[in-house]
From TrEMBL:
Essential cell division protein that forms a contractile ring structure (Z ring) at the future cell division site. The regulation of the ring assembly controls the timing and the location of cell division. One of the functions of the FtsZ ring is to recruit other cell division proteins to the septum to produce a new cell wall between the dividing cells. Binds GTP and shows GTPase activity. GO terms for molecular function: GTP binding; GTPase activity. One of its GO terms (cellular component) is cytoplasm. The keyword Repeat does not apply. It comes from Aciduliprofundum boonei (strain DSM 19572 / T469). GO terms for biological process: FtsZ-dependent cytokinesis; protein polymerization. It is found in: Cytoplasm. Keywords: Cell cycle, Cell division, Cytoplasm, GTP-binding, Nucleotide-binding, Septation. This is Cell division protein FtsZ.
Amino acid sequence: MSIESLIRRASSYTLVERELYEEKINIMVVGIGGAGCNAVSRMKKLGLSVPTVAINTDINNLRTVEADKKILLKKYTKGLGSGGLVEIGEKSAILASKELENIFDGIDIVFLTTGLGGGTGTGATPIIAEIAKRKGALVITIATMPFKIERARFIKAKEGLKRIVELSNTLIVLENDKLMEIAPNLPIKKAFIVMDQLISYTIMSFVDVLTKPSLMNIDLEDLKRIMKNGRYSTILIGEGDASDPRKIVVDALNRPLIMDMDYSKASGGVIHITTGENVPLSAVYSAVDAISSLMKDNANLMIGARIDPQFENKMRVLVLLTDIKIPILGEEYEVKSLKTYEMERSQR
Ligand SMILES: Nc1nc2c(ncn2[C@@H]2O[C@H](COP(=O)(O)OP(=O)(O)OP(=O)(O)O)[C@@H](O)[C@H]2O)c(=O)[nH]1
Ligand SMILES: [Mg+2]
């Protein structure tokens, strides 16, 4: 049989859904501190369909937010907030460890959303990441950096980010300053909604990759293995016309609002492509090639793909890259083990 006739026959096949793979994964989105809880609440209003939890030291904020579950860290603060002190945010979460542990029962993946710079989000998020991780969940933290003009808050946020990087499996950092670049004229609340939409889109795309039937499947164990092998990782998403896959990849790498990271040392990762039934193999190849050309020669890249009729002539590329560098934290930032971090905390 000639190769041409094999190709002709292949094009007339339709996919058999039964052979595709479906996995049940328990996912949860947790907002921490004022900005984090507000983000969760707004995402819920935008239609985020994942169970949500709002955690804060501030009872007034918790009263106003919408979430499936609310946890007030009250033992140390009496519900009056942390007064901007990171140590208080941290201590309040430690004192609520038991209650926090319970929310992660049976959870496979947890997204933590927080605004760094205040006391609660900056102090409590590393503790909550650690608790979730100990319970066996994969922890994906989506943190926002405050405006640089907030000065001391920005410095505090950087310190918090270092801890969060150490204690999360993967991290996405957005910058409030970048809102000034793309939406300077929007009222502040609306500008934050721009950010919430991006967070929500990232979460929902990730959930799709893991839970919807796939042609080339990436499962939770694959993700865990890849994230464990690399030090720091991040997730990028691009979407556009399937006729220009390279542009989609470039857009993913340069997404507005996302903090600049250095991908050139990336040693591994996952690339997942969602596209329409008729998009050619060469388009998929070209998207993967655009990513892999960024990475080390011996990088370990895993590929997943899903056909979705809603993506006719369109393509969404989700990339998770490990061993990235975070320039804002400086080339020399100290890499601490969890043990060192715990020892330091007990000495404070
Ligand atoms: N993206 C975004 N950033 C916000 C929002 N609200 C506040 N921020 C930023 O987030 C930073 C942290 O603020 P909060 O979340 O209010 O602080 P907190 O974690 O509640 O801490 P304390 O109130 O000090 O206990 C601020 O410095 C702002 O830059 C929001 O709704 N969205
Ligand atoms: Mg607050």
